[in-house]
Amino acid sequence: MKSNVIWLLAILVILGGFAAWRFLTPRSLEEQSVAPNTAETATNWMCLQCNQQTKLTAREYETWRETPGKLDGKTGRGTVTAFKCDKCQTFTVVRVEYCDKHDLYYARMNLDGTTGDCDKCAREAGLRR
User: Fold this and answer.
1) The predicted structure's pLDDT at residue 76
2) Same domain membership, residue 46 and residue 22
3) 13 with 49, same domain?
4) End-to-end CA, the chain
């Protein structure tokens, strides 16, 4: 009788563990790889040529990266991601940050791979003329 109770408890623990694993794991690899399409994941992007601005959610960013002809295929640009601008057709759409002090956007990384900064802040700090 005691061994039957132990076997029953063992089976219940195994079934409970399997049910928890099945409930907590994604149903497919596709569900696991889908990036969120929420405002919280949005980042600012701007064309350095024509100043066209846009926000991309994580899912939109993945879609742009997977779209043929949208991502700059050139090498030697460091770690900067440059997309093709729909307005001026140049590969100069880069991620930008916002300067609260001067109310403007600036490139996080320049097309040559160097770190970007607010031009006005840099001038005030004496880093540029």
Assistant:
1) 42
2) no
3) no
4) 89
